[in-house]
Amino acid sequence: MPLNDDQNSDSDSSRLSESTASSSDSEYSRQSFNSDSSSKPSSPASSPPKTVITFDELMAAARNLTDLTLAHEIAVNANFCIKHEDFPQNSFAGTVKQIVHKAFWDHLESELNEDPPEYEHAIKLFEEIKEILLSFLTPGANRIHNQICEVLDTDLIRQQAEHNAVDIHGLANYIINTMGKLCAPVRDNDIKQLKATDNIVELLRQIFRVLDLMKVDMANYTIQNLRPYLQRNLVDYERTKFQEILEETPSALDLTTEWIKESIEDELSSISDESSSSPGADSSPKPIISPTLVLNNGYLKLLQWDYRKTIPETLITDEVRLQELREKLNQLKIIACVCLITNNMVGAAIVDVPDFAHQLKRISVPLLEGMNKKTFDLKEALNAIGVQICSKVNRSLTERGLPTLNEEMQSNLMGQIAHIVEENNPVSSLIDKRIQFFMRSLLALPSFQKCMPTMPGGLSVIQTEMEFIGSQYASIVNFNKQVYGPFYANILRKLLFPEAPMGKAETETPTT
């Protein structure tokens, strides 16, 4: 049975979104929002208003959310697999488990050592082993199914026990041989160790240990076979599952609606600021807001999201990935700031040094490792980076026979690097705007276009990392638009064109 091998999760995620095209503004024109397109099968139907949600409805929605999240993770993350984890031995739970298990196996051993032996607990174990072995079989494996049921027939074993005629070692050997036929190649060594174990109680204990591992292997084998199907059908599956959640809990789009509403308000504020600074602002018509721009602005805010807050419901399945991207971008922003400050202050002295910016990056990266942990002291890390950069610059100048930086210049350089962390720092704000501009340009590209937008000035030292993160980010966004586009269209229509007649799906109550 093949097992789940580690693969590059990014390729799968990218492949999922290759067919997703960025919606043009014409697609979101007023005409389209006023049409009956929401009544098409691909569009979500709205739910009747409810004031009370029953416990069963809540649990059904929770199950749907779990199914949706698991399916999404399997499809987009090629490295996703089930891992066999146990309690740490020194933990309280691990100690309790160890004590309870030891008591069970000691009791079993005392029963088998009685004269005559007491087999009842052993028979129950054989019955459990039989059910586990049968669970590994694929449909149609009738011969081995019948054989397992015949050999591990607990009624027959009980009859043999009454006459003290149970061949317990023979049963254990049959189980081991059957496990050897059903297990993954990675378990071959475990099977060999079972065959070398003589003590029957220890053998049964180890059989259950290996069976637990085989359960995990089987789960991962199932995931591996399920992944291509999910990747082909994930858009429809996720949209259908979310519609079921929405029908069970009508409030399941509240956070998403608020997220889009905030993006609209930001866009209106931006338009207002621009128009107030231009002549004839009072006579200008009511601004027309692009729904595509509203959505893209909303997606951009996720790169600066405070993940202590609940994320919009439609993005829960990608919350961890988006948080990781935000953390990586924060680190890259610091690196770009450090390089820009150093270049501005001592650029003339290092202009002839090849690849000096990347040398500065190699200094910064290790010192910024883990910068998103609560215990990380960013100020201390920036001070250490400043010291090492001054040392690097001076060493480079000495090697070329040039005077080193004086104390005032070193102090100034280290001070500016240390101030990156301060709010409204001009260098940090500049780099942040350029990162946002790059990501905004990326979202504006059609998804089928493979080339990257031009990298803004000051980001060349992190260009490779920015393009890699940008590709991951665009894949998440484009796929999210594919799945939840109809839900977003309904929300945008209500917020941007509240006077427009509702589509069929919004005015009719779905039949139950």
What does this structure look like?
- It is a single chain.
- By secondary structure, the protein is mainly α.
- Helices cover 65% and strands 0% of the residues.
- The chain has 19 helices and no strands.
- It has helices spanning 9-16, 30-34, 55-76, 92-112, 120-135, 142-151, 154-162, 168-182, 188-195, 200-248, 254-276, 291-301, 319-350, 356-367, 378-399, 407-418, 426-444, 463-496, 504-507.
- Helix 10 (200-248) packs across helix 18 (463-496), helix 13 runs antiparallel to helix 16 and helix 15 (378-399) runs antiparallel to helix 16 (407-418).
- The longest helix has 49 residues, at 200-248.
- It is extended.
- Mean pLDDT is 79; it is low at 1-43, 45-53 and 503-512.
* Large-scale geometry: extended
Instruction: Quickly give the structural class.
Output: mainly alpha
Number of helices: 19
Number of strands: 0
Biggest sheet, open or closed, and with what strands and sense?
A: none
On the 0 to 100 scale, the average pLDDT is: 79
Overall radius of gyration: 31 Å
What is the distance, rounded to the nearest whole angstrom, between the alpha carbons of the first and last residues?
Answer: 44 Å
How helix-rich are the residues, as a percent range? 55-70%
SSE succession:
HHHHHHHHHHHHHHHHHHH
Oligomer designation: single chain
Q: Spans with pLDDT under 50 lasting ≥5 residues? A: 1-43, 45-53, 503-512
**How large a portion of the residues is in β-strands, by DSSP E?**
under 5%
Topology (SSEs and partners):
Layout: H1 9-16, H2 30-34, H3 55-76, H4 92-112, H5 120-135, H6 142-151, H7 154-162, H8 168-182, H9 188-195, H10 200-248, H11 254-276, H12 291-301, H13 319-350, H14 356-367, H15 378-399, H16 407-418, H17 426-444, H18 463-496, H19 504-507
Helix pairs in contact: 1-18, 3-10, 4-10, 5-7, 5-10, 8-9, 8-10, 10-18, 11-12, 11-18, 13-14, 13-15, 13-16, 13-17, 13-18, 14-15, 15-16, 17-18
